[in-house]
Write a structure and sequence with these properties.
Blueprint lengths: L1 H21 L1 H19 L4 H31 L5 H36 L2
Helix pairs in contact: 1-2, 2-3, 3-4
Amino acid sequence: MFKRLKQSFVNAGKGLWRTAHEEMSFRVQLGTAIIVFALMLALPLRTIERLILVLVICAVLVLEIINSIFERLVDIYKPRLDPYVRDIKDMMAAAVLIASLGALAIGLIIFIPYLRNLWP
């Protein structure tokens, strides 16, 4: 049982590595997540604020991975120039964009009051 569990974690790590290695958008979002985590450690945020930030970071990163999966799947089944393939890719990109903008709004709402207090 532990061997299979260990292999599941190894496989998940490979998927994470492949996504980070091959998807520029994921790397940008991962970099942003690291900055947000650093700010979470540096600022005296409330627990609920930290939880919300972790949740939206995870949501954006997971959605970006799902976007990458959809892109690969539709490329397998249809030629890249098929209008449906383009539409599916555009819609998935829109989903990631909406989640990212929502995460940005949440981050600004949480961080601005704390950052304002740093400068007189």
